[in-house]
Design goal:
The complex is a heterodimer. By secondary structure, chain A is of the alpha/beta class. Chain A is built from ten helices and eight strands. Chain B starts with 5 loop residues before the first helix and ends in a 10-residue tail after the last helix. Classes of the chains: A alpha/beta, B alpha/beta.
């Protein structure tokens, strides 16, 4: 994943509503599933403990949401650990974008790095979108990062996203690695104004 | 927009350039890696035919998966063994210094880097772990990153980031007996909320932090992320310099003198501008404990569990979820709640001063019948120093188990786990559902001294009664 840079402007698909604030990364993917040297198989384990406890009634298990592409969440989604395993698990389940009231910062950055846009909308708009999807799960949603809207037949909500990450998706530069490496000369120049790099290197002892 | 703060100065110094997206390309002065979030990043490097650009600025240790009882190799958990082997071979292949088990310097990554003098003022520090904010205690800009970003730092020693706003959190006054750094940060998070810090760096300032030693400052900065702030820091001062002097990777001789001058210049200016300011009175802070499933659901130990009508409407759904999950009743006291497991350790509270304080209360007392209590030093060095002071004898005589260093039951990636509905009194940093290894296990966060108070009484207790 994240290998091939590609522009992400429009995402279409059905929605998956996941109601609740402060849904943390330990719930998205419990730590025991981090005991691996790859991200393989994480899609099946997304929200593993919540799903076991709700016995088939978790939104990720409900038949009407299978195959959904857009996750709709509330406030502070993805708080807690920096584990990229959390967005990897969500993405590997099939989610391509997340719309929510707000996102935890490290989670948001991890999503950018793997090509999953996290876009925000005000609480009333999120409620409207969640209700639309709950009452009519087959609704086809169109998330447009240029127009910053989610549209469906008979409705739409307005989205917000900071210009930096928005551009990284629309111009296909969300995988920053190549861009960063291209600045080798400037990286070298930066090191020359950091005195601590010469005080002691980590190899000296 | 902030101006003249340490955050601004360090950010500007490390800015490589502005990317077409408008984000900053930031140089990372110290990259810490561990076994959980790095193997996939090394695999991505290999797929792209890239090498580690600054292996000498990259340091590895193993902490999350190490067993704290039987550490002989191969580990009994084959998946943990595979992660260990991947880290060993990746470090060897890329020429990265690795502090392995038995090296004398292994431990929780956020404990060993300060111990070794690797973490210094004015640096940028990144690590694939959200508690990297710990290193801000030295006046560094330190934050957690995900695996793809670990790849970016390995490949380029830089990251694409948006600049944060700066909130000055001032706490003034002397903490009352039985009140610790842990209580200060739990109190701040309780007040500002778990998402109050999103988009901010927290500058911890005021006389309370000035009076704290480095380990206490680390406890505070460690949990900035639990308040939503990706990084937290304290301006470097004499306390910082005294801690650093003579450590293995600290500058020496002439370089030391230059370093102190440079570090001092980086302090936030007296007339620095902040995006926000909040002020607390240290004397109002009580021994604080969480009752719910987020680190913001905290109360003074003498307070009753809050009722929905006394909280803002948006906090009620998660409070209702917390009452059910924790099996605690709103309006009832938290004191007297029976505990099953007591855990002292973690990157928040697994350092020597934490163990000394815990031992002070454990001395001459006994762990209550039916309670499992254990102490996990934060590093091999902490363990060795604690043993030199005889702290392990105090713990063992009191009925605590004395273990090998690692992250242990903070997140239970190793064999240390809660079972079933067990309730844990824990000196760690997260009380999320299932955090300590059982899908229905329950966690109460508190200071190490409060954990001892719970261990010896068998119930949640006010440590001030043991003073």
């Amino acid at each position: 994943m994240g290998q091939i840079n590609s522009q992400i402007q429009v995402i279409t698909g059905r929605g998956l509503p996941l109601v609740g604030n402060d849904i943390d990364t330990d719930r998205i993917i419990p730590a025991r599933f981090l005991r691996s040297i790859t991200f393989d198989g994480l899609g099946e384990e997304v929200f593993a403990d919540d799903r076991t406890q709700t016995q088939g009634q978790h939104p990720f298990d409900l038949p009407q949401y299978q195959g959904a592409a857009i996750l709709i969440v509330n406030g502070n989604f993805g708080c807690g650990s920096s584990r990229e395993h959390a967005p990897q698990a969500i993405a590997r389940w099939g989610i391509q974008a997340i719309v929510g009231e707000s996102f935890a910062e490290i989670f948001f950055g991890n999503c950018v790095a793997i090509g999953i846009p996290c876009v925000t909308a005000d609480p009333a708009a999120i409620k409207q979108l969640q209700e639309q999807v709950m009452t009519t799960p087959q609704t086809s949603l169109t998330l447009d990062l240029d127009g910053l809207q989610v549209q469906w037949e008979g409705g739409s909500i307005t989205l917000t996203m900071k210009e930096g990450p928005r551009q990284m998706f629309t111009t296909g530069t969300w995988d920053a690695c190549g861009q960063l490496l291209a600045q080798r000369d400037q990286i070298q120049a930066t090191t020359e104004r950091l005195p601590y790099l010469t005080w002691a290197t980590t190899k000296s002892a | 927009m902030s101006k003249g703060t340490l955050f601004d100065k360090v950010w500007d110094l490390h800015t490589v350039g502005v990317l077409p997206s408008g984000q900053t390309q930031l140089f990372i002065g110290l990259h810490l890696i561990h076994e959980v979030t790095s193997p996939q990043a090394f695999a991505m490097l290999r797929e792209r035919g890239l090498k580690v650009l600054f292996p000498e600025r990259t340091i590895a240790t193993v902490d999350h998966i190490v067993p704290t009882d039987n550490q002989s190799r191969p580990f009994l958990d084959s998946m943990a063994e595979a992660m260990m082997q991947a880290l060993e071979s990746n470090c060897q292949e890329q020429g990265i210094t690795f502090y392995n088990v038995g090296s004398g310097s292994q431990g929780i990554v956020h404990v060993i880097a300060p111990e070794l003098g690797l973490t210094q003022p004015g640096m940028t520090v990144a690590c694939g772990d959200s508690h990297t904010s710990t290193h801000g205690a030295f006046g560094a800009i330190a934050f957690g990153i995900g695996t793809s970003q670990v790849r970016d730092v390995l490949a380029s020693q830089t990251l694409a980031l948006a600049k944060l706003k700066v909130r000055r959190i001032e706490v003034n006054g002397t903490l009352r007996p039985g009140v610790y750094a842990k209580d200060v940060i739990l109190h701040i998070i309780r007040t500002l909320g778990v998402k109050g810090g999103v988009g901010y760096a927290y500058e911890f300032a005021g006389t309370t932090f000035e009076q704290m030693n480095m380990e206490e400052r680390m406890t505070v900065c460690n949990m900035a992320i639990e308040g939503g702030a990706r990084c937290g820091y304290v301006n470097p001062d004499e306390v910082t310099f005294t801690y650093l002097k003579g450590r293995q990777f600290a500058p020496q001789g002439e370089a030391w003198e230059k370093a102190v001058v440079w570090w001092t210049q980086l302090r936030s200016d007296a007339d620095a501008e902040y995006d926000d300011r909040v002020v607390f009175d240290a004397t109002e802070i009580e021994p604080t404990i969480t009752w719910g499933i987020t680190p913001g659901q905290g109360i003074g130990v003498q307070e009753p569990i809050p009722t929905p009508d006394e909280m803002p409407e948006e906090e009620r759904p998660i409070a209702e979820e917390a009452y059910r999950y924790m099996d605690l009743q709103p309006g009832t006291p938290i004191q007297g709640t029976r505990v099953d497991v007591c855990f002292i350790g973690s990157c928040t509270n697994g350092r020597l001063s934490d163990l000394r304080e815990a031992a002070r209360f454990a001395k001459g007392r006994r762990v209550a019948e039916g309670v499992k209590a254990f102490v996990v030093p934060g590093s091999e060095r902490v363990k060795q120093q604690a043993e030199a002071e005889g702290l392990h004898h105090i713990f063992l005589e009191a009925g605590f188990e004395w273990r090998e260093p690692g992250c242990s039951m903070c997140l239970a990636m190793n064999p240390d786990k809660l079972e079933g509905r067990q309730l844990s009194a824990s000196s760690s940093n997260r009380n999320f559902k299932g955090r300590q290894g059982s899908a229905s296990g329950r966690t109460l966060l508190m200071s190490p001294a409060m954990v001892v108070a719970a261990a010896v009484t068998g119930v949640v207790s006010d440590v001030r009664e043991l003073l």
